[in-house]
Specification:
This protein folds into two domains: 299 residues, FAD/NAD(P)-binding domain (3-Layer(bba) Sandwich); 187 residues, FAD/NAD(P)-binding domain. By secondary structure, it is of the alpha/beta class. The radius of gyration is 23 Å and the shape is globular. The strands form six sheets. It has a five-stranded parallel β-sheet with strand order 3-2-1-7-19, covered by helices on one side. Strands 10-17-11-12-13 form a five-stranded parallel β-sheet, covered by helices on one side. A hairpin with a 4-residue loop joins strand 14 and strand 15. It comes from Halarcobacter bivalviorum.
Length: 489
C-alpha cells in the first residue's frame, strides 16, 4: 500500500470516528489547532473543548518542577479554580522544551531550534514561577526550602520534577556525573567529543548524536566495516522506546546512503524482551529480523573505554543452585560475567534516577521515586501531596502520552481533596509510544495496565505506518505546545 493510499484510508477512519462524536475534521482541527491529534492520542471525549466547572475552594498549591507535567498541571488547575493560588518552582527557563523531538534531532530531521521553547511563554495567568530549585522537604510541616534559602509553605504540593541522567554511574564516565535533559551538558559534550559515543537523552547530546551518526555513515559509505552499539540500562527510563528509535533511524540513514551492508547494528538491553507488551515485542522482533539487527538480552552497560572504543557490559543469567530440602525446590543463583564489545558508534541510554533531594527525602521511597497510588496519583503517606510524570512511582508512566492522561486525573483528585471529597478520578495506565521504525514509518504502541494493545483507532497497532509518522513529526509538537501546556489536550 502506498503512503498516499494509507494516509487517505487512515483519514477516512478518523473522519468516521469524528462523525460519531458529531464533528467534521475541519471542526476538530479548530479545537485549539490540536483536535485531530487529540483524537489520535486516545481521547474519548472532547477534552480540548471542555473546561471543568471552576471550583471556589481555596488553597495554596506548590508545584515542584516546571516542565511539561508541571506547567500542564498548573494550567489546568488555573482554569479549574475560581481563585487559584499556584506557585511553580523551576530553575530552567527552557524547561518545557519538546523533549520527544530529541530522536528527530539526532537523525537530522529536526534542529535544536525546533524543540526549544521559553517557559515564560506558557505560564498561565495568575501562576507564579520562582526560578530556583527545591532542595529540602518537610512534609510534616508543609514546608519546602529552596537552593537560594527561601522557605515556602503550602496546603497542597505536586511533585513533577522529572529525573536525572546518571552518566556518572558508568565506569569511565564518572566525571560527567548527573545531568538533566535540558540542563548544562558541557561535561557530556566535552568528555565524549570525537569518541563516537553519544546520547539523545540530552538535547545538546542529540545534536552531537547527529554529528556522530553522519561520521558513521560516511565511514560505512567509504567502505569501512563499522559496528554501531545501542544500550538500555537496568533502571526505569523515560521514553522506553527511544533506545530502539535511534537504532532504527541510524539504520535508515545507512540505507539512504547505500552503506548498510558495511554496518552491524546491535542492541544490548538489560531486560529479557523488546517491549513489555507481548504483541509489540513480537512485532519489534520481526522488524529487527527484517533489518538484520543483532541483539543480546540481559546486558547492562557498566563501563566505557573511550580511547580503546570498548564498551563493557554486565551479562547476567539465572542458574539452578543447591537443592533446598525444606522448601522442596532448587535455589536460583544469578551469574554474571563482563562482556567487552568494540564499537565505532555507541549510543548510551544512561541509568536514570529521581533527584537525590527528592528521592532520598521524606517524600521519596526506598527506590528513590515518589510513591503514589498508581490510580489516584496521591502520595501513599502524605495525602496533601500528589505526583506525576517521570518522577512518580507509576509503572509504565514515563512518557509524554502518560502525562497527558495523568495530569487531568491529578487535577480532578487534587480539587476533590481540597473540597474534602472522595478521590474518584483514576489513571488507567494509558501510555503511548510512537516507535519510529524508519524515516517515514512509526508503530504507534498504545497500552495500559492490562499490558495489552489499546489502539485508539481500528488499525492494527503492530503495523508500521506513514500516517503515524505524520502524527509524530508534524502533529504531536503543536498538540503539546498549544494543547497540553494550556491544560486542554
Amino acid at each position: 500500500m502506498s503512503n498516499n493510499t494509507e494516509l487517505k484510508e487512515a483519514l477516512n477512519i478518523i473522519d468516521k470516528e469524528l462523525k460519531n462524536k458529531g464533528l467534521s475534521r475541519r471542526e476538530a482541527l479548530k479545537l485549539a489547532g490540536i483536535g485531530s491529534a487529540s483524537f489520535l492520542m486516545g481521547s474519548s471525549e472532547l477534552e480540548a473543548a471542555t473546561v471543568a466547572n471552576a471550583s471556589d475552594v481555596k488553597a495554596k498549591i506548590l508545584i515542584i518542577g516546571g516542565g511539561l507535567a508541571g506547567i500542564a498541571t498548573a494550567a489546568r488547575l488555573s482554569s479549574s479554580l475560581s481563585n487559584p493560588d499556584i506557585t511553580v518552582i523551576e530553575p530552567n527557563p527552557k524547561s518545557v522544551s519538546y523533549q520527544p523531538g530529541n530522536t528527530l534531532i539526532a537523525a537530522g530531521i529536526y534542529t535544536k531550534d525546533d524543540v526549544m521553547y521559553d517557559t515564560k511563554d506558557f505560564v498561565p495567568n495568575g501562576v507564579t514561577v520562582i526560578k530556583d530549585r527545591a532542595v529540602e522537604f518537610d512534609p510534616e510541616n508543609n514546608k519546602v526550602k529552596t537552593e537560594n534559602g527561601e522557605t515556602l509553605d503550602y496546603d497542597y504540593m505536586v511533585i513533577a520534577a522529572g529525573l536525572k541522567l546518571d552518566f556518572g554511574k558508568i565506569q569511565g564516565l564518572e566525571e560527567i556525573g548527573e545531568l538533566t535533559t535540558l540542563g548544562d551538558s558541557s561535561k557530556l559534550i566535552s568528555k565524549l567529543k570525537d569518541s563516537g559515543v553519544c546520547s539523545i537523552y540530552s538535547t545538546d547530546g542529540a545534536v552531537a548524536t547527529w554529528e556522530n551518526m553522519q561520521k558513521l555513515v560516511q565511514d560505512a559509505k567509504a567502505g569501512k566495516k563499522v559496528n554501531a552499539v545501542f544500550t538500555h540500562p537496568n533502571t526505569p527510563i523515560k521514553c522506553g522506546g527511544a533506545p530502539k528509535k535511534i537504532m532504527y533511524l541510524t539504520n535508515s540513514r545507512l540505507e539512504e546512503a547505500g552503506a548498510r551492508q558495511n554496518a552491524e547494528l546491535t542492541f544490548y538491553p538489560n531486560g529479557g524482551n523488546m517491549f513489555g507488551v507481548k504483541e509489540y515485542h513480537e512485532a519489534i522482533l520481526k522488524q529487527f529480523e527484517v533489518r538484520d539487527f543483532k541483539w543480546h538480552y540481559n546486558h547492562n552497560l557498566v563501563g566505557v573505554d573511550l580511547e580503546k572504543k570498548i564498551a563493557t557490559f554486565d551479562n547476567f543469567w539465572d542458574e539452578k543452585g543447591e537443592y533446598d530440602a525444606d522448601l522442596g525446590e532448587y535455589d536460583i543463583v544469578t551469574k554474571h560475567k563482563d562482556v567487552e564489545v568494540e564499537y565505532d558508534f555507541l549510543h548510551i541510554t544512561p541509568p536514570m534516577k529521581a533527584p537525590d533531594e527528592i528521592g532520598k527525602s521524606a517524600i521519596g521511597s526506598g527506590k528513590g521515586w515518589v510513591p503514589v497510588n498508581k490510580e489516584t496519583l496521591q502520595h501513599i503517606k502524605y495525602k496533601n501531596i500528589f505526583s506525576l510524570g517521570d518522577i512518580a512511582a507509576v509503572p509504565m508512566g514515563k512518557t509524554g502520552g502518560s502525562v497527558r492522561k495523568q495530569y487531568k486525573v491529578l487535577v480532578d483528585n487534587l480539587i476533590s481533596a481540597m473540597e474534602g471529597k472522595e478521590l474518584k478520578a483514576k489513571y488507567e495506565g494509558y501510555t503511548v509510544c510512537p516507535l519510529i521504525t524508519d524515516i517515514g514509518k512509526v508503530m504507534l504502541a498504545e497500552f495500559d495496565w492490562s499490558k495489552k494493545p489499546t489502539p485508539s483507532f481500528p488499525l492494527d497497532p503492530t503495523v508500521e505506518r506513514y500516517v503515524w509518522w505524520l502524527l509524530k513529526v508534524y502533529m504531536l509538537k503543536p498538540m503539546t505546545q498549544y494543547g497540553l501546556l494550556a491544560g486542554r489536550a
